[in-house]
């Protein structure tokens, strides 16, 4: 059978284990999944009820940049919660933040230009950078330094001519690190000195523990023209399936990005945008109750992982643990697949988060408490026989 021509660009995309892990989870019902990065909670009921009511009115395209009602609501939220003062022209509504990041990379980069990507970091960045024919440059993060970005290490990875974008993600997937305002000020100076645009991915802005505070780097003095800020409804409102996110930044850039977004998607789903307007006025008790349940699970999983010989830092935000497996194996992928085959517990190999994730596995605690308990017992038994 003729399978058609496949582009070199596609053939060169990095090999990822995630699809194979998902396939095995779907096939083998005995596997407990600590794999996916998706809230296990349903979307809050008032949002579902509102969506049902609005569905007949949602059958048309919206304005590609996003419905004005939603962009106005986002402007208010950005001012109140992120200390970012913009107009609806500075906002674009997208199909999740993944599409926003892709459209922004398309608008910002010429082929071969470089994007600085802290590693371990979210697995969605590198393929998107590859797809726009730009080059990722990994900036190492280490557990000794709490997976915090170090500005001197960052400077050593900058190429004055080629480095155009720096991606930050706080609270961070997979490490749970939350950047302090002081560190952001330092990084902001490095970005300005090197004429780089910062992409600030704030997908987990509301998922914070033990008094950790979220700061948007775009709110710092003088950063308005240097930062694109990415937010999503996926995590805060358990709305992953609605594919709704947004990006704010300099008006001229958002205007350019809107062209890419328009040609790729024609706009985010109208029903999702309508629900998004409602979500932004939803009582905060819905987010708070999800976060307190994540915290309860976090307090279960972190001490147990440490006890069973997988050194793990306490996450300050997001809903993942990132554990050192080197006492048992040097190969994250092999370890993770063996754990899935023998103990029936699915985790994500650290190497999915870039080369500096080698020697680690990620567990998601966006999974029911009792499932996490059982998974930990199975992991303990597996490690005893290693
Ligand atoms: C750090 C980070 N950014 C962006 C995304 C993409 O989320 P969405 O496209 O659903 O907004 C994810 C999803 O897991 C993520 O973890």
Describe, in short, the structure shown.
The chain is of the alpha/beta class. The chain is 40% helix and 14% strand.
Tell me what you see in this structure.
- It is globular and about 60 Å long.
- The chain folds into two domains: 8-43 and 285-384, Alpha-Beta Complex (Aspartate Aminotransferase, domain 1); 45-279, Aspartate Aminotransferase, domain 2, CATH 3.40.640.10.
- Helix 6 (125-131) links the parallel strand 3 (114-119) and strand 4 (135-140).
- Helix 4 (68-82) packs parallel to helix 10 and helix 11 runs parallel beside helix 13.
- The chain starts with 7 loop residues before the first helix and ends with a helix.
- The chain has 13 helices and twelve strands.
- A seven-stranded mixed β-sheet has the order 2-8-7-6-5-3-4, with helices on both faces. Strands 9-12-11 form a three-stranded antiparallel β-sheet, covered by helices on one side.
- By secondary structure, it is of the alpha/beta class.
- The chain has helices spanning 8-11, 18-27, 45-54, 68-82, 96-108, 125-131, 151-156, 181-193, 251-265, 270-279, 285-307, 332-343, 369-384; strands spanning 32-33, 91-94, 114-119, 135-140, 163-169, 197-201, 227-232, 245-248, 320-324, 345-346, 348-349, 360-364.
- The model has no long low-confidence stretch (mean pLDDT 97).
- 40% of the residues lie in helices and 14% in strands.
- The structure holds pyridoxal-5'-phosphate.
- Residues 37, 96-98, 122, 124, 169, 173, 201, 203, 232, 234, 240, 245 line the site of pyridoxal-5'-phosphate.
């Amino acid at each position: 059978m003729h399978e058609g021509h496949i582009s070199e660009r596609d053939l060169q995309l990095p090999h990822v284990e995630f699809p194979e892990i998902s396939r095995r989870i779907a096939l083998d019902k005995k596997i407990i999944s600590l794999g996916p990065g998706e809230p296990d909670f349903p979307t809050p009921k008032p949002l579902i009820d509102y969506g049902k009511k609005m569905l007949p009115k949602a059958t048309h395209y919206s304005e590609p940049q996003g419905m004005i009602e939603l962009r106005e609501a986002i402007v208010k939220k950005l001012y109140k919660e992120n200390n970012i003062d913009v107009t609806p022209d500075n906002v674009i509504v997208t199909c999740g933040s993944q599409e926003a990041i892709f459209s922004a990379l398309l608008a910002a980069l010429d082929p071969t230009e470089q994007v600085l990507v802290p590693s371990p970091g979210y697995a969605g960045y590198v393929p998107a950078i590859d797809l726009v024919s730009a080059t990722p440059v990994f900036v190492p993060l280490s557990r000794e330094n709490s997976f915090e970005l170090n500005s001197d290490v960052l400077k050593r990875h900058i190429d004055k001519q080629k480095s155009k974008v720096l991606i930050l993600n706080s609270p961070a997937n997979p490490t749970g690190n939350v950047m302090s305002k002081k560190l952001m000020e330092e990084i902001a100076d490095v970005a300005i000195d090197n004429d780089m645009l910062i992409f600030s991915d704030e997908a987990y802005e509301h998922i914070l523990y033990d008094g950790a505070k979220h700061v948007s780097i775009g709110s710092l003095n003088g950063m308005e023209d240097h930062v694109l800020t990415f937010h999503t409804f996926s995590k805060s409102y358990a709305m992953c399936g609605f594919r709704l996110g947004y990006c704010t930044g300099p008006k001229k850039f958002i205007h350019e990005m809107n062209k890419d977004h328009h040609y790729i998607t024609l706009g985010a789903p109208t029903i999702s945008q309508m629900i998004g307007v409602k979500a932004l006025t939803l009582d905060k008790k819905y987010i708070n109750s999800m976060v307190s349940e994540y915290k309860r699970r976090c307090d279960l999983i972190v001490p147990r992982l440490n006890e069973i010989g997988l050194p793990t830092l306490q996450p300050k935000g997001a809903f993942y643990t990132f554990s050192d497996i080197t006492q048992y194996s040097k190969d994250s992928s092999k370890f993770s697949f063996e754990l899935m085959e023998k103990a029936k517990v699915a985790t994500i190999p650290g190497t999915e988060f870039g080369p500096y994730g080698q020697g680690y596995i990620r567990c998601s605690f966006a999974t029911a408490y009792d499932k996490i308990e059982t998974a930990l017992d199975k992991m303990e038994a597996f490690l005893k026989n290693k």
